[in-house]
């Protein structure tokens, strides 16, 4: 399922770059490319880091997930501030194409994650076996 997620997410990024290139030219394509790379890196880091942590199903998985999410949000804000202050938005990079691509790719990846989570047959908890009460039936 991870390959399907990655393939569809990559396809949505390529489609956004192609549409932005037609609509806004080179700056639009560059903005869409930056947006697609940011979203794919953001969600790809989740799969790369959390997958090894969730295999043993330890109690620290949720803490690690929250810490990773917080770190990614801080890095995303830092990247947005750096891009904004660099003066590249506008002429060399189309800000609208970047924003639309981030929104579209995020919605596609989030939708695919919801479908993957609801269709996977992963048990949430273990009922265990019935306790032995010493009675025979």
Describe this structure in words.
There is one protein chain. The protein has three helices and no strands. It has helices at residues 2-54, 61-86, 95-119. The relative contact order is 0.17. The mean pLDDT is 81.
Secondary structure: elements and pairs:
Elements lengths: L1 H53 L6 H26 L8 H25 L18
Helix pairs in contact: 1-2, 1-3
Report the radius of gyration as a whole number of Å.
21 Å
Shape, principal axes of CA atoms: elongated
User: What order do the SSEs take from the amino end to the carboxyl end, as H and E?
Assistant: HHH
Q: Return the structural class.
A: mainly alpha
Our measurement of the CA-to-CA distance between the termini, rounded to an integer number of angstroms, reads 44 Å
Give the overall average pLDDT. Answer: 81
Q: Beta-strand percentage?
A: under 5%
**Share of residues in helices:** over 70%
**What does the main sheet amount to?**
none
Report the uncertain regions.
Answer: none
Number of helices: 3
Question: Total strand count, please?
Answer: 0
In short:
It is built from three helices and no strands.
Based on the model shown, name its key terms.
3 helices, 137 residues, mainly alpha, single chain, 76% helix
């Amino acid at each position: 399922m991870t390959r399907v997620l990655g393939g569809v997410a990559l396809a949505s990024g390529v489609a956004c770059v192609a549409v932005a290139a037609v609509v806004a030219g080179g700056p639009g394509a560059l903005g869409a490319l930056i947006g697609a790379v940011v979203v794919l890196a953001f969600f790809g880091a989740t799969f790369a880091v959390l997958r090894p942590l969730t295999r043993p199903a330890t109690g620290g998985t949720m803490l690690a997930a929250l810490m990773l999410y917080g770190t990614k949000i801080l890095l995303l804000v830092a990247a947005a501030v750096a891009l904004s202050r660099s003066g590249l938005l506008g002429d060399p990079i189309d800000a609208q194409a970047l924003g639309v691509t981030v929104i579209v790719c995020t919605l596609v990846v989030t939708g695919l994650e919801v479908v993957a989570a609801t269709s996977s047959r992963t048990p949430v908890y273990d009922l265990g076996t019935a306790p032995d009460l010493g009675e025979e039936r």
